[in-house]
Specification:
The chain is α/β, with parallel strands linked by helices. It has helices at about 15-35, 50-60, 110-120, 180; strands at about 10-15, 40-45, 65-75, 85-90, 100-105, 125-135, 145-150, 155-160, 175. It binds guanosine-5'-monophosphate and magnesium ion (2 copies). It is an enzyme of class 2 (transferase).
Length: about 180
């Protein structure tokens, strides 16, 4: 769906469908160059990264494998605590594999920093991260992210896989959610 289909729910479009597509293509060119000739496994983090995975994978002009993980942060409230529980693990044994984690957004970085350490401990040859969005103001832990699409302001965004209460994932663009929706 488009912003016009949910009139008033989005206060500002941060990235249009076309801007997202251009960025995904740019990331794909870099990934192809960096991983040429390698047997790359891309790992999508459910559910937010579904759109990025689908578009990035189809944009890559090389053989890849795809797998998925689902994780949830323990902790009260809306802040991620850094203590992570695996809801769905990989189906792939990644010992010796070249792995690229694909994420929608890095907020505090706590989830990804845990995931990175977890996958690296399984004996992968390499584990790197590709995230479409990052909120620079919110980063609490330094993580080494190889590919970043856009840095965005520290506001709650939805669309292109990103939800509020499981809605808005099917919005084609990425925008700032209007306060009236959650207040
Ligand atoms: P953190 O980096 O804080 O550990 O957690 C990142 C996760 O929180 C993301 O994968 C995403 O699911 C969620 N998240 C963080 N910021 C936003 C946002 O602005 N909008 C939405 N919809 N989810 C967000
Ligand atoms: Mg995510
Ligand atoms: Mg969510």
């Amino acid at each position: 769906m488009d912003v016009s289909d949910i009139e008033g729910d989005i206060t500002e479009v941060l990235l249009t469908e076309q801007q997202i597509a251009e960025k995904i293509a740019e990331l794909a060119r870099r990934i192809e160059a960096d991983y040429a000739g390698q047997n790359l496994l891309i790992v999508g983090v459910l559910r937010g990264a579904v759109m990025v995975m689908a578009d990035l994978a189809r944009e890559l002009r090389m053989h890849i494998e795809m797998d998925w993980m689902a994780v949830s942060s323990y902790g009260s409230g809306t802040q991620s605590s850094g203590v992570v529980r695996i809801l769905k693990d990989l189906d792939t044994d990644i010992a010796g594999r070249t792995v690229l984690i694909v994420e929608d957004i890095i907020d505090s970085g706590l989830t990804l920093s845990w995931l990175l350490a977890n996958l690296r401990s399984r004996g992968a040859e390499s584990v790197e991260i590709c995230a479409l969005l990052r909120k620079p103001d919110a980063v609490k832990v330094e993580i080494d992210v190889k590919y970043i699409g856009h840095d965005i302001p520290n506001q709650f965004v939805v669309g292109y896989g990103l939800d509020y209460a499981e809605r808005y994932r099917n919005l084609k663009s990425i925008g700032i959610l209007a306060p009236h929706v959650y207040s």
